[in-house]
Design goal:
By secondary structure, the protein is of the alpha/beta class. Helix content is 55%, strand content 15%.
């Protein structure tokens, strides 16, 4: 379709795109949004409109789509097409995070897909890659850090590194103690330089030490040296670290090869996530502006119901000011709306609202209107808004506007929407108004749709005569002489020139002189319009009063119905709460019974057997209550319970509970025995729920809950 960049600027369309782009998380999504332009048919944007509407429904229902953040890797991933190129650990983790997010979408749509047919259809072409995710996460920890078991070779190298480092640290500690006793070392004793331990030697004693020089302090009073005894171990460590780095690179290359083998699918999944980020941004903007999805109109009607200018809506909300919605209807029989009324009454913003919402809808964006809104599509949208005086081209405002009219006359047809602010202004009112009449008649004959604003009475009279045009005005409170910012279709409006002048304090005798200079018929016409508008406003107020009473009555009826439903819900909730409390109490009683049995008898195995029986029984009850069970389903439930109980975190929490409720609290130095054993040992260390016990000839790691104080121990 034809949309001149000036049209986008006049209607501030780029500001809308920036507002939406600011809600996107990724740079590619923001670029996609900024590149949006109007389409010429509903079919071109239908999918985008419904996709955003589905996402908006998910936001409003609280049933949100997965929204974890991710970093697009497109440029980096494309490099994998070059042979031998490989991703670093951080990039591979980002790939896994991205694929994990797609898997989360897969799980979500498996459950809720039918509610979101357009989004579900877009996702259907993707194939989740769980094996690739497991491969990456199985070898790389967050940080990122390559796991020891990423390969047998890496595990061997790192074990050697730990052994050599322990040997070096032990030897270094011995050398430090030796030279410390001789008085060779400074107070700081030691330091680390280039990942090797060095002694802080006082300058006079440096010549007495054999080792590698590593540097001096700022003052030169301290010489840092690595003892000769640890130098071979440091060199060996460096060789091992080089081997470690080489093995890590081999692991990264293997993982990169796995990504390379699935590159096209990975790129498709990334494109999906970027696209959904853009859809999410559009849906967030729609939520923030109370936007909805209007219907396309195939009969040539443009029906805006409760329409808001989105930028004005956001700005006034920040300032705590109200925004008045507008109802506008253009049909094949009433295609052109001529809006009149006082200055600062809202004519221009109403005109811009029509144009901006039309651009947004034709760009696949939801708009702030009532859902009953219907819009047709236009091939061309033309605007003439604001003062376009051109110094460079030596054009006055009126000359510029005449050039615009020349373009309008060439392009205007039944598929055109034109928007002209202050139609005919900029020249002699009589001559400019006459020319504007000719233009308006031609636009009407061409079947074009349009909205114009004007103060010219001749255009108001013409709009009454022409079949395809209709008058409208911005409502005005004649008593307060204040604009009401509400569009009224059907009658022209007064400019309230003399009334406004009187309000702001212009002397009455000057206003009277001005009246005499104006054609009496014009003054009477303007006064008649003002009185008509005031009567219409009073009538509308009365209608609104009766509507309000009816709404209050309907609201009371609805409230009584809600109260009845609420009472029933509360009753059911109390029943459920009672059952839950009873179950919690029963579980607590059972746990207390286990702990007391454990205190008395210390039979940990029996406790575990009882716990497993209880867990199976409880879970099986839930299975039986949800639907008629089958033997296969019952066996599956038992297996689920056993798998949960085998989990390390579950065992650890129960071990901690046993320790917490035990009368005996083990401590380092206690003499203890294992439950059911007579062999005594001494606790030499405690880590978490596990103690290290020295039995003389050997040490063992034992759960704290299995320990009892020895008979002759002071801990009893």
């Amino acid at each position: 379709m034809f949309v001149h960049p000036k049209v986008l600027a006049d209607l501030e369309f780029d500001r809308i795109l920036e507002e939406i782009a600011s809600r996107a998380r990724t740079r590619p999504a923001r670029e996609t949004i900024r590149a949006l332009r109007p389409a010429s048919s509903y079919e071109e944007v239908e999918e985008a409109l419904h996709e955003t509407d589905e996402y908006l429904k998910a936001l409003l229902s609280g049933n949100r789509f997965p929204e974890d953040e991710f970093t697009p890797m497109g440029e980096e991933l494309q490099k994998l097409r070059v042979e031998n190129y490989f991703l670093d650990a951080e990039a591979l983790l980002e790939v896994a995070r991205m694929l994990d997010l797609v898997r989360a979408w897969h799980r979500h749509l498996q459950t809720f897909g039918p509610e979101y047919p357009v989004i579900n259809r877009r996702f259907a072409s993707l194939t989740p890659l769980p094996a690739l995710v497991r491969e990456i996460r199985g070898k790389i920890l967050p940080g990122p850090e390559i796991k020891d078991n990423a390969s047998p070779e890496l595990a061997r190298i790192r074990e050697q590194i730990r052994e050599v480092r322990r040997e070096r640290d032990t030897l270094f500690a011995r050398m430090r103690k030796h030279y410390e006793q001789k008085g060779y070392l400074d107070e700081i004793g030691e330091s680390f330089i280039d990942d090797r331990p060095v002694l802080a030697v006082k300058l006079p004693y440096a010549k007495h030490l054999d080792g590698d020089y590593a540097g001096t302090s700022r003052t030169g009073n301290i010489v840092f040296m690595e003892p000769a005894e640890t130098v071979p171990l440091t060199r060996r460590l460096r060789r091992l670290h080089a081997e470690e780095e080489a093995e890590i690179i081999r692991i990264l290359k293997r993982l990169s090869d796995e990504v390379r083998a699935n590159l096209d699918e990975v790129l498709r999944q990334e494109a999906f996530l970027i696209h959904m980020d853009a859809v999410r941004a559009k849906a967030l903007f729609a939520r923030d502006t109370d936007s909805s999805l209007p219907a396309p109109d195939r009969e040539g009607e443009l029906v805006l119901k409760e329409a808001y200018h989105p930028l004005l809506l956001l700005e006034n909300r920040k300032r705590g000011l109200p925004v008045i919605p507008q109802d506008i209807r253009l049909t094949p029989r009433r295609r052109i709306l001529v809006i009149s009324g006082p200055n600062a009454g809202g004519k221009s913003i109403t005109l811009k609202t029509v144009g901006l919402l039309q651009l947004m809808f034709q760009s696949g964006l939801l708009i702030p209107v009532h859902p009953d809104t219907r819009l047709r599509f236009f091939e061309k949208i033309l605007t003439d808004i604001g003062d376009h005086q051109s110094i460079e081209n030596q054009l006055s405002t009126y000359s510029y506007r005449l050039k615009n009219m020349k373009l309008f006359l060439r392009l205007a047809d039944k598929d055109t929407l034109f928007l002209i602010d202050e139609f005919g202004s900029g020249s002699d009112p009589d001559l400019g108004g006459a020319l504007a009449e000719v233009f308006l008649e031609l636009f009407n004959r061409r079947g074009a749709y349009g909205v114009i604003t004007t103060h010219y009475n001749n255009l108001k009279l013409l709009a009454e005569k022409l079949d395809g045009t209709v008058n409208a005005h911005m409502a005005f409170d004649l008593r307060r002489l204040a604009p009401l910012y509400k569009l009224r279709i059907g009658e022209p409006g007064s400019s309230y020139t003399f009334e406004v002048a009187r309000k702001i304090g212009i002397p009455e005798h000057l206003i009277g002189k001005a009246r005499k200079k104006v054609d009496r018929k014009k003054v009477e016409f303007d006064r008649t319009l003002a009185h008509m508008q005031e009567k219409m406003r009073q009538l509308e107020k009365e209608i609104d009063r009766w509507k309000t009473k009816r709404q209050e009555l309907e609201k009371q009826i609805a409230e009584y119905r809600e109260k009845e439903i609420g009472l029933l819900k509360k009753l059911n909730a109390f029943r459920e709460l009672y059952e839950q409390d009873r179950q919690v109490w029963e579980n607590g009683r059972k746990m207390k019974e286990w702990l007391e049995n454990f205190r008395r008898h210390g039979d940990r195995r029996k406790m575990w057997r009882d716990f497993i029986k209880w867990a199976e029984k409880t879970h099986l009850k839930q299975v039986e209550s949800s639907s008629p069970p089958s033997p296969r389903r019952l066996e599956k439930a038992r297996k689920e319970v056993r798998e949960v109980i085998r989990r390390e975190d579950v065992r650890r929490k129960l071990e901690e509970a046993l320790i917490e409720h035990s009368d005996y609290k083990p401590a380092v130095g206690d003499r203890v025995v294992l439950a059911g054993s007579t062999s005594e040992g001494v606790i030499t260390g405690i880590k978490g729920t596990v103690a290290t016990v020295n039995y003389g000839k050997f040490t063992a790691e034992v759960p704290l809950s299995d320990l009892r104080p020895a008979k002759n121990s002071s801990a009893q």
